[in-house]
Each structure stands twice: as C-alpha cells, then as structure tokens.
C-alpha cells in the first residue's frame, strides 16, 4: 500500500499558465473573426504584454457583452501541455506515491485543464477551490487531501510563495517550489516571512527526483 503522497499545484507548476491565456485569446479570436483570426489574436497578445485591458478592447471594438467573452475564455477546451518531462516523471512516481492536485479556480475551468493535460487518469484526488468553498492558503484544502489519501508522508510542489507553502508547512508536509523562469502569471516574491517559504527549490522537473 502506498503511504506517501505527492501533491501538486496546477497553474505554473504542471504547465505554463500563460499558455492557457494564449489558448483563450485564440478561442475568442476564432469566435469573433473566424475567417481571419490570427491578426486579432496577435493584437490581443500584444495588448496583454503592454499591460492593457484586452477584454475592454474587445467589448469596445465588437460591442459584445463582457460576460460572453469571459464565458468563452473560462470554459473553452484549452490547448496546453505539461512542462517537459513532467508526464514521464509523474507516471514513474505513481508506483510509489499517491498523486493529488490542489488548485484554485472555477471547477469547469480547472477540470478542463486537467482533461487537456491527460492528468485525470493518474490522479488519486483533486481539490478545486470552487468545489470545496475555500482557496489556498486555507488549510482545509490541504486537510481534504489528508482525509482522502490517508498517507504518512506528504510532499507538495507549487510555485506561489504567497499561498502555496504556509499551510502544508504547518501540517508537517515537505514543500518544494518550482522557480519561475520569467513566464509565470503571478510573479514570485521570496521576501516574505519564512513560514511562507518552501523547504526546497527546483528549476526543472528533472531535479525533483534528487529532492524526494
């Protein structure tokens, strides 16, 4: 029986969240300009990187309700991929570890991501904030994993020091941070109280085995 659990954040830990954003922009562009979507997509990406409000641009230009755009963005089937080597590593580790995900966001959005990444088949448990009614760093999200998996040891991998590590640290879990290479949606700030910091840092998924 497996008595160890590897618990994972989703966005910017298992895949690049910026790819979900690009996928959403592409979906919207194809809905609004089906015959020639690429120029609109490129412009949305440009606006985003300039720090401008892409959705305001779209509502003004196309006279479309914001709620419709947000529905398209949040609930589309995303074109995203796991970080390099992640699938092989997780597939090997599942021989010795139970696998779980703790993620914040809307249920449909996050489950569409898990489906696109083909993770549903290897996960033993999933916690999504909208489904449980609380967001990280609320300890309830982590306690739900403990209650479900009943393991002796828990290891958590995330990327956001503001909310990912403080609760599992207090629960006695080992915590690992995947460092941002400059593309993360939420930039990492490690100049915070030590209780919010992870025990270990990795820059690539291939470094994980040496830490476990």
UniProtKB/TrEMBL annotation:
Transmembrane segments: none
Keyword GTP-binding set for record: no
GO terms, molecular function: metal ion binding; phosphatase activity
Organism whose genome encodes this protein: Rodentibacter mrazii
Keyword line: Hydrolase, Magnesium, Metal-binding
GO BP annotations listed: small molecule metabolic process
Highest taxon listed in the record's lineage: Bacteria
Obligatory cofactor(s): Mg(2+)
Residue ranges that the Swiss-Prot or TrEMBL entry lists as coiled coil: none
Pfam families linked: HAD_2
Protein name per UniProt: HAD family hydrolase
């Amino acid at each position: 029986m497996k008595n160890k659990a590897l618990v994972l954040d989703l966005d910017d830990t298992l895949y690049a969240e910026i790819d979900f954003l690009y996928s959403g922009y592409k979906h919207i562009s194809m809905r609004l300009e089906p015959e020639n979507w690429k120029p609109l997509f490129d412009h949305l990406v440009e606006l985003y990187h300039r720090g401008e409000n892409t959705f305001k641009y779209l509502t003004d230009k196309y006279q479309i309700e914001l709620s419709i755009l947000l529905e398209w963005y949040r609930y589309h089937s995303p074109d995203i991929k796991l970080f390099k080597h992640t699938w092989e590593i997780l597939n090997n580790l599942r021989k010795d570890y139970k696998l779980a995900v703790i993620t914040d966001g809307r249920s449909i959005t996050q489950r569409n991501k898990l489906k696109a990444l083909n993770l549903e088949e290897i996960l033993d448990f999933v916690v999504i904030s909208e489904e449980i009614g609380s967001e990280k760093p609320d300890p309830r999200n982590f306690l739900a994993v403990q209650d479900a998996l009943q393991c002796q040891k828990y290891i958590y991998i995330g990327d956001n020091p503001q909310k990912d590590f403080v609760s599992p640290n207090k629960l006695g879990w080992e915590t690992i941070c995947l460092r941002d290479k400059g593309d993360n949606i939420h930039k990492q700030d490690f100049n915070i109280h030590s209780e919010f910091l992870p025990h270990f840092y990795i820059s690539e998924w291939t470094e994980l085995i040496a830490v476990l």
